[in-house]
């Protein structure tokens, strides 16, 4: 499988009155063609900022990409001019946002919004664009496309709007879609519909997907590979199977243990991760997860670990992966 | 004010129970209606008018947010109320607390009909019924320090007259919720989401309530913090004997916390039973779809699961379908389902279901 996106040592910082927030603090990962990569982490871990950096949507100031490379289809996105990037966005690279309520323009009809990108990027005429837009709506499961195209976003339910967002993202047959918490605002049954739709369409059209989420169940169901982020860094990466079966970073292990599961016997007590996520303006020298970690040693205070392979295709940024593996050895 | 004082003198100083840790006894000895359930909701309805026109307002239709639901909660029990957005679960909680006035139906708390009380008469009961809201960002007054937020209900209800004792009580409540006493001097914006939710819980506990409505109390929190708060709610239940109505859309959390669960859909309860039965043997087609939609955090299990998502959208409560409200999306629906509203019947001991098809063709 060919590599489609290659993010290397990306640093995105924000300057605030309280100091520099190192939202993304050196992440490296790749996405292959047609593959679904999940980025998991809790709020403030940098998963959205990482995605916005790829899209070139970081507001500068206060944000700034301090360092790194984002290579997409052979081009380094960080060296492109705004105009070059604009041609790429929506054409080859598309994004689906969390809030289907706020990410569509309330003043324009659905049809206008769908046709816009078809006309700009693909040079369709008005009629061609309208026909294609109706096709797209059918593809995302919206019946009666002709009527829907004349409606405004407020006429539609949340699930419908998210379908429109997917149609918009797919309009120009991109190579990569970044979906930032695409179903978090939706109800459980609607969430399932939307994710199934995204899975079916990305497989059929061979589109790669970066799925940003905090829901471990969604990752298990839909992702091929997973990057776990904590405090601006990727702390573990591997195939979904590997990471769920044998997590090699204490944070991943902590996340897995803190969610109640409906498929297992009810636990007497949940095992939360103690403490709070760190303040991103005051990151120390050592491992950011150290203060909350059960496996912490002296070395963790002084040196920040980088990703090291623990199994074929699985990496962990932890000094004590051996201890983590041993703790899982007998029981699970 | 006079009424409050009378009430207090009849009841003794509330803080005392808590401090000598004799809370289990406190719960038992409390008030009238001891033999019955702590809370009984009968035929509760809440309709919101939909109006048209600005100068001359006309009511053009109604949103039946809650449409005739009944359930009971025993002392010390945690009852879950689950459903998707717009199903009326929050409105139910607000009606119980009398933060909304029900259109019809009764809410009996310890045998007293709260729905007939006026605002003044309700005041002493407010002490016993508290609420924890979803959003720890907007449910705390940003201009008040944490200490003030927590002491406010104590002052309003005149539970502790002495200022020093009030401070001690605030420190105790903060400690109980896993916060250091120094937090009393902070403002909500200086705290993280999890800490704020702890403040919300401390405030709810300030009046020694017997019953707390938790309205999506952990939904806005990250998973690692969510687990901390769930454990805290459990500890408080065990230590203080508090009864919860736990409103949530997250079935896995509900399964962990609740003994019994009611599933709501468009203003009605469609299934109600013990947590164990609901998750092991769901009967209503909607419950089955809800359970199937929860992704399980294990790729191996997910790969083997045969999964078809529910069809269609949740209808607008303004135009609820006729008969059984679930029939347009239901895999079992027959022609009759659109005509008659199925009653909530006890199909098996302790297992209530509102579905005529399940009733006719029991699933083994």
Structure, explained:
The complex is a heterodimer of chains A (332) and B (364). Chain A has two domains: 3-223, P-loop containing nucleotide triphosphate hydrolases (Rossmann fold), CATH 3.40.50.300; 230-327, no CATH class. Chain A contains twelve helices and twelve strands. Chain A has helices at 47-55, 82-88, 110-122, 126-139, 145-149, 158-170, 188-205, 216-222, 240-245, 250-258, 298-302, 321-329; strands at residues 3-16, 19-32, 36-40, 63-72, 75-76, 93-96, 176-180, 208-213, 225-230, 233-239, 308-311, 314-316. In chain A, a hairpin with a 2-residue loop joins strand 1 and strand 2. The longest helix of chain A has 18 residues, at 188-205. Chain B contains 14 helices and twelve strands. Chain B has an eight-stranded mixed beta sheet with strand order 6-7-8-3-9-10-12-11, sandwiched between helices. A four-stranded antiparallel beta sheet of chain B has the order 2-1-4-5. In chain B, a hairpin with a 5-residue loop joins strand 1 (39-52) and strand 2. In chain B, helix 6 (146-156) packs across helix 7, helix 6 (146-156) runs parallel beside helix 8 and helix 8 (193-205) runs parallel beside helix 9.
What secondary-structure arrangement, pairings included, does this model have?
The complex is a heterodimer of chains A (about 325) and B (about 375).
Chain A: E1 3-16, E2 19-32, E3 36-40, H1 47-55, E4 63-72, E5 75-76, H2 82-88, E6 93-96, H3 110-122, H4 126-139, H5 145-149, H6 158-170, E7 176-180, H7 188-205, E8 208-213, H8 216-222, E9 225-230, E10 233-239, H9 240-245, H10 250-258, H11 298-302, E11 308-311, E12 314-316, H12 321-329
Parallel strand pairs in A: 3-8, 3-9, 6-7, 7-8
Antiparallel strand pairs in A: 1-2, 1-4, 4-5, 9-10, 10-12, 11-12
Chain B: H1 2-11, H2 15-19, H3 23-29, E1 39-52, E2 58-73, E3 78-82, H4 89-96, E4 104-109, E5 112-113, H5 119-126, E6 129-132, H6 146-156, H7 163-176, H8 193-205, E7 211-215, H9 223-240, E8 243-248, H10 251-257, E9 260-265, E10 268-274, H11 275-280, H12 285-293, H13 299-304, E11 345-348, E12 351-353, H14 356-360
Parallel strand pairs in B: 3-8, 3-9, 6-7, 7-8
Antiparallel strand pairs in B: 1-2, 1-4, 4-5, 9-10, 10-12, 11-12
Helix pairs in contact in B: 6-7, 6-8, 7-8, 8-9
